[in-house]
Amino acid sequence: MAPALSRSLYTSPLTSVPITPLFSSLSSEKLVSPTRRSFKNRRFCDAAVAEKETTEEGSGEKFEYQAEVSRLLDLIVHSLYSHKEVFLRELVSNASDALDKLRFLSVTEPSLLGDGGDLEIRIKPDPDNGTITITDTGIGMTKEELIDCLGTIAQSGTSKFLKALKENKDLGADNGLIGQFGVGFFSAFLVAEKVVVGSTKTPKSDKQYVWESVADSSSYLIREETDPDNILRRGTQITLYLREDDKYEFAESTRIKNLVKNYSQFVGFPIYTWQEKSRTIEVEEDEPVKEGEEVKKGEPKKKKTTKTEKYWDWELANETKPLWMRISKEVEKGEYNEFYKKAFNEFLDPLAHTHFTTEGEVEFRSILYIPGMGPLNNEDVTNPKTKNIRLYVKRVFISDHFDGELFPRYLSFVKGVVDSDDLPLNVSREILQERRIVRIMRKRLIRKTFDMIQEISESENKEDYKKFWENFGRFLKLGCIEDTGNHKRITPLLRFFSSKNEEELTSLDDYIENMGENQKAIYYLATDSLKSAKSAPFLEKLIQKDIEVLYLVEPIDEVAIQNLQTYKEKKFVDISKEDLELGDEDEVKDREAKQEFNLLCDWIKQQLGDKVAKVQVSNRLSSSPCVLVSGKFGWSANMERLMKAQALGDTSSLEFMRGRRILEINPDHPIIKDLNAACKNAPESTEATRVVDLLYDTAIISGGFTPDSPAELGNKIYEMMAVAVGGRWGRVEEEEESSTVNEGDDKSGETEVVEPSEVRAESDPWQD
């Protein structure tokens, strides 16, 4: 496992991809990033070792770390990495680099491979002794390389190797080396109190050496391996002696396997972990003697049975291959679906996928998926911290925590992998360092996602986009609010019900295509349900004129449309607000109606007072007597309802934002004509005043507003009902007759028993 420790030699475990940009031209000399302020101008990699001395305790030589190394190790253990578990990623990446370096060099020197076996990595936890042993069959290290790379923090063998490749162009530069920092090896001290590079042997030398160090020590020990049982054919073996509080977690075989699957699933070499397994075996047992049966001399009867046997063996942990590394034309749809299910633990096939490679200032490969089902939890709709995008660097997992950096939260439902060979990460390889690079990646990923969604919308199978919209339509509406820069991509994807199509969703493109010649706007109505939208009085004249109206029935719809404002030079117009222009008004007729009912409008305004801003003749009604509309710049009735429902809403702003209310009357309705006569002939009539109050209250409800006093409105309706139905079925006559009978009884002084069946009025509707 030379790489693991060799990784320092070959590459810093952390990056899984050359992370040089992070440290400007850090040819393994400057350690920047988390400890940037303290070490910005210090060099850690020029000198190999400050000093060496012999020790009486053993036959090895004792070496001192460079100055400040103990301080740096303390930072690595306590500050550099966010999670302890990344130590395994770093050591496996080192091992991978050691194998990659050997494979690369063996092209020109086949003898380096020798009889060292296959190129592989093996990880064996030992819970009894609290150790983890990582072995690779890579290039190994010489004594000088151990001193140079493990004795100097931030000394990267990988960066040196890459530099040599660039200087010798004949060797080429096609390699899969992961890291360049040289600090990844020391991440082992996150969980280990002692690290022993138990054996490391390079094909370039016949000698094998052991390197070991304790976590809090300022020195390390190197000695030659003389025990024949520990001699390796090739490669490196690292043993971590875990701390007491980490033994039970990281020495557990299942935990190790899961970490490999999470971080190193797509490393280019096979990774085997030591796992407990079970198998069924057939055994022979003595057949028990039945009660009362005599035991015969000789061999007892045997019977065959099966039992489960536990055993330990090596298991391949990274069998899933990085599908994004292949050419998209060579990959079948079934392979994409299978990869999606394994990588994201899904059971449904994705709705769509896109596989692409980008080149230029930032180069990366990616596969993005649209899931087959939306999130079940509503909180996931607005949660930018989903783990749906997994970032890899040279196929080593880096992070899936981006907080909206790679994708905006309205596209947080998209799942996929992004893999690059060179990203500006910090030393711990957990954070993207340069914001400009992140912005470029974000822009390209968003564009590819919209291309994928657009393909679904244009598909011949309309059910695919219908399914997408049901699951993720609200996400795109959120994008209308949060991402003004992508309105042109989002708007064609929106779908709504309309007055001409109440069963199927309508796109804005279809709406514009079906518009009349004189129609200059896109009309919409925001309500709480499709049923209430269909019966709203605002629609009457528009339906009569065959003008289509979009129904916005979800809470987010109105805000989304207001943020769009226009589409293809057509303005969005709310038909529940004042000054509605339908484009074909008869100015002469409108002027005459206003003159005729001008006195009525003033009289109604006087009756209602401050409840309305004004009363005017309507051009949107045909069957309703009146309607209450909102001011042009205030909240609509739907928005007012939503804002009142906010759990943490500011009630003080409701009156300010509510805007004006305008009562519009229908001059052709009988009730309005009667009121017009009343205001001229009997302006002081209390009955006419009661009718005006009831008209206003019903207009509040039909307009989608909430009445200030529902109980008071109910009482008014009861009074009107009493006037309308009072005495209609004989109740009055019955009472009068009963009272007459009672008076006669009082005069005679006698009590007469009357059967209920005999008390009937002549006009009783239930009389036979």
UniProtKB/TrEMBL annotation:
Alphabetized GO MF terms: ATP binding; ATP hydrolysis activity; ATP-dependent protein folding chaperone; unfolded protein binding
ATP-binding listed as a keyword: yes
Residue ranges, annotated region (Disordered): 730-768
Residues bound to ATP: 90, 94, 136, 141, 156-157, 180-185, 236, 429
GO cellular component: a single term: cytoplasm
Pfam family, one: HATPase_c_3
PANTHER family: HEAT SHOCK PROTEIN 90 FAMILY MEMBER
UniProt-recorded name of the protein: Heat shock protein
Gene designation per UniProt: hsp88.1
